[in-house]
Amino acid sequence: MKLEGLQSKSIGLVLSGGGVRGMAHIGLIQALNEYGISANIVSGSSVGALVGALYANGNSVADMLAFFKETPLFKYNFLTLVKSGFIDTDRYFEIFKGYFPEDSFEALEKELHVVATNLQKAEQRFFTEGELIRPLLASAALPPLFSPLELDRELYADGGIMNNFPLEPIKKKVDFIVGSNVSIVGDLQKKDLRNSLQLTSRVTALMIYAINQQKLDACDLMCAPEALEEIGVLDRKGIEKAYVIGYQEAKRILQKFLSKE
């Protein structure tokens, strides 16, 4: 496809969950920017919801990286003994308000869909209108580290629990879908499965991949850098590395796609 043809299409961007590895989403956005490609609609889960919101808000790539570098993952006075979860997710509200002062989906420059998991009703819910910050916090509230958020008198947590790749809200709204999946399941050696933590992490990753595989295959262009597996989901030292990996992989797949006749 010629670049002009892609630029003229309505484009949807789907961003998966995956913790610090989600900085690769920002690398993809940088690559798209360099090609003059902009998404019309964004859908995200967990860290993908956060990146998606910043993108839909018109924040620059530099601002996006700064958000994740400057927002503390662990802060002593955010710890809680009165809520389920080690860290009180509500304490992040004021930090987010600095980036989203109007606290509204309607104030964003692009249409955004955010998925979170209703823990009480065992169902997923998409948010796309009304207040923005609390649904964002809920979508990224990974238990048991972060406490669930109360929305409409019910408890919500990480969107990736039930939908780590939220293609559904945009698949019939656009001509072309770009996906970014940072929940990687590459090959492992036996030495990488030597303890219970490694085994649990691998099993969880495989379950998430199996549930979402059909949706990943439905994208017109997919960025899923295998090198991200070297980066821990909560390893803040990997922020810049994950960004670079995502950028390089996005450039590679865009060049390959656009070179096809």
TrEMBL record:
GO terms for molecular function: hydrolase activity. It comes from Maribacter algarum (ex Zhang et al. 2020). The active site is at S46 (nucleophile), D158 (proton acceptor). The lineage of its organism: Bacteria, Pseudomonadati, Bacteroidota, Flavobacteriia, Flavobacteriales. A motif (GXGXXG) lies at residues 17-22. PROSITE patterns: PNPLA (PS51635). A motif (DGA/G) lies at residues 158-160. One of its GO terms (biological process) is lipid catabolic process. This is Patatin-like phospholipase family protein.
